[in-house]
Design brief:
heterotrimer; A alpha/beta (273); B alpha/beta (281); C alpha+beta (102); A: 273 residues; alpha/beta; globular; B: 281 residues; 2-enoyl-CoA Hydratase, Chain A, domain 1; seven-stranded mixed β-sheet; 11 helices
Chain lengths: 273, 281, 102
């Protein structure tokens, strides 16, 4: 975990991958947008970062709140609009380190569900329009925040590290909701891979394209940066070589065989007679 | 409303998922895909001592609406709170994907989703979440060709990652009983404290996330009485309206302009939310 | 969670199938299909342990009396009372009979 007042992992990796390129203007402190390059071509990098001084009191630790959802949508749609008449669509890299969606009265009142839909829809539309969308998970990737920022990517990459976590709900809250103790939950997670919190277990589900080990996930060395950048470049090439613009690449591993079987059966029975 | 009208009404809320699906499709046109006798159950629940439901809590009804090919995805709120597991989530995503494919082949298959769900099924956590992401992807794909209609009637409402799915729909239909919000009240109270959100204060919760409030805040498109015929008619009307020129989820500029006028130092009041969005959206 | 299997003598195979109920708190799902002639096989999965005798009693009352078609009955139960169990099984029978009328 990053101590307070130091840049989050998301902010650190965003600036490292873009060689400290300046932030695009006009975005709030929580949504960092950088126009840089990937494989020598222009690409937009986006991260959601903590702002301890956020005017919205429930969005100070890297959560995705109302403003963040809509600004993510804006950051993505701007690129889609700019490239509308271009044959080669720019890559969009979502650098993911998001604690959760924001929990609060203001958020529910003004429709945070709709703001996150704005973000998810923008990323999905970008992907369908032919923009290579890459999700790079460098820290937490939780629940609604991940659905809004990262989960619509063509390819998902995660760092292999104890502080990288993908899940639907924090442990304490999940334990309360399912009326179990945290210990019971952890015991279940040990035998039921989709319930586990560690990224190693997550990787067995077939949702990641790559799991990457680096030396210093909190403060990447230049070797670390090379490694990740190379992976991003490979992901870009992989996406461009793929005629499909959907998420079907996530259905390959054994733990998701029912997801595959359901689709096969629906297809077989779709037409009558 | 007089007694006669009251007696003529037929509650949609009281119907289970299978009946809801049948009620929304043209009479006699429903064919259930991967029904209970196929026993596509959750592979993850028995190992945790949780009894499975044969259809994993999702009914896929293929048929016609107003004579056109359609599929109704109805979530059974009574099973595990309508939460999304691997199989149920795949039924929804897979059906939406096939509907989009149909459209690319010139078949105008449209979809209706009946949201009665708390979001991810925590007993399947990451596979539930992944399925929801695929549902989002499939809605965005399909809605380019046909309107995707979402209905939330109650009593469970629509929460979690599925509220985001609702936000991606072309049109949303709700009743008074319905709620539409991202986080469950209990979770908000746990995370933010009872002063911020009292999960036992029902009028408070409905005042912010209830169907009527959402309608007057322009976050949903239709606010209908709990009546099967009325809801069925509204679905048909929405489908006839076609794909909207701009989906609600595409309107980031309008929403950002509205939110810029909010003073986050104050807690919101329901009337303020209505006024803000009625002016700005 | 417990699994219980019971068998009862029965007549000719049922001519249809039926699915009723939901696995909700205090409720159950009943799936009914034809079985080979002569016996009805009941397979119960229940969230409440230690109630085998009660299930035997309830099902004997419903299935042990008048001659019924041979069925495979699958029950997925989430703590229903005997009254609700009976109600759902009878609902399933009604669906079978209604299908007969079509």
């Amino acid at each position: 975990m990053t101590p307070a007042n130091e840049p989050s992992r998301g902010a650190t990796w965003l600036s490292a991958l873009t060689a400290n390129a300046p932030l695009a203007e006009g975005y709030p402190a929580t949504v960092q947008v950088v126009d840089a390059t990937l494989a020598g071509e222009p690409a937009r990098y986006i991260a959601v970062v903590p702002d301890p001084d956020n005017r919205f009191p429930r969005v100070r630790n890297g959560e995705v709140g109302l403003i963040e959802g809509w600004e993510l949508a804006r950051a993505v749609r701007e690129i889609v609009a700019a490239d509308a008449d271009r044959r080669t669509k720019r890559a969009i890299v979502a650098v993911v380190d998001v604690a959760s969606q924001a929990y609060g009265r203001r958020e529910e009142a003004y429709g945070i569900h709709q703001a996150l839909a704005g973000a998810a829809g923008a990323y999905a539309d970008a992907r369908l329009a032919g923009h290579p969308v890459i999700g790079l998970i460098v820290g937490r990737a939780m629940s609604g925040a991940l659905l809004a920022h990262g989960y619509q990517a063509n390819r998902l990459i995660a760092l292999d590290d104890a502080d990288v976590m993908v899940h639907a709900m924090g442990k304490a809250a999940a334990a309360r909701v399912t009326l179990r103790s945290v210990e019971e939950l952890e015991a279940l997670a040990a035998k039921i891979p989709p319930m586990a919190y560690d990224v190693g277990s997550f990787a067995t589900l077939g949702l990641l394209w790559r799991l990457l080990r680096v030396e210093r996930p909190d403060a990447p060395s230049s070797a670390d940066l090379d490694r990740v950048d190379t992976c991003l470049v490979e992901a870009l090439a992989d996406i461009r070589a793929d005629a499909r613009r959907d998420l079907s690449g996530r259905l390959q591993q054994a733990p998701r065989q029912m997801s595959k079987r359901v689709r096969e059966r629906l297809r077989a029975d779709w037409r009558e007679g | 409303m007089n007694t006669e009208e009251l007696l003529r009404r037929s509650s949609f809320i009281e119907l289970g998922a299978r009946e809801r699906s049948g009620a929304l499709l043209d009479a006699g046109s429903m064919r259930e895909l991967i029904g209970p006798f196929d026993r596509f159950v959750s592979p993850w629940l028995a190992g945790q001592g949780v009894v499975t439901q044969a259809d994993d809590g999702v009914v896929v009804g293929k048929g016609r609406i107003d004579g056109e090919p359609a599929v109704v995805l109805a979530i059974e709120g009574a099973f595990q709170g309508g939460s999304m597991g691997e199989v149920g989530g795949a039924k929804i995503a897979g059906a939406l994907e096939l509907a989009a494919e149909d459209n690319r082949r010139g078949i105008p298959t449209r979809a209706v989703i009946v949201f009665e769900t708390g979001g991810v099924r925590l007993q399947e956590a990451n596979l539930g979440l992944a399925a929801i992401a695929e549902i989002h992807a499939a809605i965005v794909d399909l809605r380019r060709y046909q309107p995707v209609i979402g209905i939330t009637a109650g009593t469970v409402g629509c929460f979690g990652g599925m509220s985001i799915a609702a936000g991606l729909c072309s049109y949303l239909i709700v009743t008074r009983e319905a709620r539409l919000g991202l986080n469950g009240p209990a979770v908000i109270e746990q995370e933010a404290g009872i002063e911020e959100y009292d999960s036992r204060d029902r009028p408070f919760i409905w005042s912010f996330t209830g169907g009527e409030q959402r309608y007057h805040s322009k976050l949903v498109d239709a606010y209908i009485e709990d009546d099967v015929d009325a809801i069925r008619e509204k679905v048909r009307a929405a489908l006839r309206d076609g794909v909207p020129p701009r989906h609600r989820s595409d309107r980031h500029e309008a929403f950002l302009a509205c939110l810029a006028a909010v003073d986050p130092a104050q807690q919101p009041r329901p009337a303020e939310v209505r006024a803000l969005y009625q002016r700005g959206l | 969670m417990e699994r219980i299997r019971l068998e009862f003598p029965a007549g000719q195979p049922a001519r249809h199938r039926a699915a009723v109920g939901v696995v909700g708190s205090g409720d159950l799902e009943v799936l009914l299909e034809p079985n080979t002639a002569g016996s009805t096989a009941v397979s119960i999965t229940t969230s409440v342990n230690g109630m085998r005798r009660v299930w035997e009693a309830v099902l004997t009352r419903i299935l042990g009396a008048a001659p019924l078609p041979a069925m495979k009955i699958e029950i997925n139960d989430f703590g229903a009372t005997p009254g609700v169990v009976r109600m759902r099984i009878e609902q399933a029978f009604e669906e079978l009979n209604a299908a007969d009328g079509k």
